[in-house]
Amino acid sequence: MVETRIGIIGGSGLYKMDALKNIEEVQVQTPFGSPSDALILGTLEGTRVAFLARHGRNHTLLPSELPFRANIYAMKQLGVEYLISASAVGSLKEEVKPLDMVVPDQFIDRTKNRVSTFFGEGIVAHIAFGDPICKNLAVVVAEAIASQNLPDITVHRGGTYVCMEGPAFSTKAESNLYRSWGATVIGMTNLPEAKLAREAEIAYATLALVTDYDCWHPDHDNVTVDMVIANLQRNALNAQKVIQETVRRLSENPPSSDAHSALKHAILTNLDKAPTATKEKLGLLLKKYI
Ligand SMILES: CSC[C@H]1O[C@H](OP(=O)(O)O)[C@H](O)[C@@H]1O
Ligand SMILES: Nc1ncnc2[nH]cnc12
């Protein structure tokens, strides 16, 4: 059921893409359960894409409750090879201001108790994750932002996204610790999402939409949901335009990606000796290697 090569996961405040045409809602079932919501197949800039509201269209799922494996596997089942992750983040740097956009190139995992792999049950794999974001896809996203010439909005290329567990926001001690590490932005959802995309050999890049200065900045109030949503609403149209331009560029010239062969040197178990049930469950991921 190859429907599209391009997937979009909309984060907080981005629960739909207004520009999507010829919409079809698809309830996708996966071996890892149901995704956060129906996948919305539609045409954007003449290209078929799959859109998923990360928290559900009514924002009913906490970061800790997200069915990360089902979300990524569902995208894989639809044929997705490039995944754009839109995410609301807090800024950890003075120069990264609310409403700016960041295309990170690194993550620090501060999540707890999240299942971060499709593997196990008799099949062991260790993907390379030194460069967790697809460099070539990240360039397309960054160029798409720059092309919009958004007034008073800066695009920051590169940077480190700290992924915390949540749902409570950070303490000042945590926020300043992350700043001392040189991290750029903070969110609650891009891991294990990016790890699972890599295991699924899907190129992944984040469009991080800065909504606040978290709780460290002496001249700004501590982050609240109201603050995040208000800034997301101010930036929602810009975010959709950026995603639309990214899709246009991707469909014109899909970049190569190391992610597309991520499992080639990662599977440790001799698949001839692996449990049949697990091979069937992971069939979509393993079909090139069996
Ligand atoms: C509403 S503020 C916290 C919430 O927003 C971000 O979600 P997403 O990454 O899906 O845009 C953050 O990760 C938290 O889930
Ligand atoms: N300050 C913050 N911390 C974690 N996730 C966020 N999403 C938006 N702002 C955030």
Automatic annotation (TrEMBL):
**Would you tell me the protein name for this molecule?**
S-methyl-5'-thioadenosine phosphorylase
Q: Which gene encodes it?
A: mtnP
Record InterPro entries: MTAP, Nucleoside_phosphorylase_d, Nucleoside_phosphorylase_sf, Purine_phosphorylase-2_CS
Q: Which residues form the signal peptide?
A: none
Q: Does the keyword Cell division apply?
A: no
Q: Which UniProt keywords apply?
A: Glycosyltransferase, Purine salvage, Transferase
Q: Does the keyword Transport apply?
A: no
Protein's pathway: Amino-acid biosynthesis; L-methionine biosynthesis via salvage pathway; S-methyl-5-thio-alpha-D-ribose 1-phosphate from S-methyl-5'-thioadenosine (phosphorylase route): step 1/1
Tell me which Gene3D superfamilies the record gives.
Nucleoside phosphorylase domain
Q: Which domain of life is it from?
A: Bacteria
The entry marks the following residues as binding phosphate, namely: S12, R54, H55, S87, A88, T189
Where is the site Important for substrate specificity?
A: S170, V225
Report which reactions are catalysed by this protein: S-methyl-5'-thioadenosine + phosphate = 5-(methylsulfanyl)-alpha-D-ribose 1-phosphate + adenine
Tell me a Gene Ontology molecular-function term this record carries. S-methyl-5-thioadenosine phosphorylase activity
Q: Which family does it belong to?
A: Belongs to the PNP/MTAP phosphorylase family. MTAP subfamily.
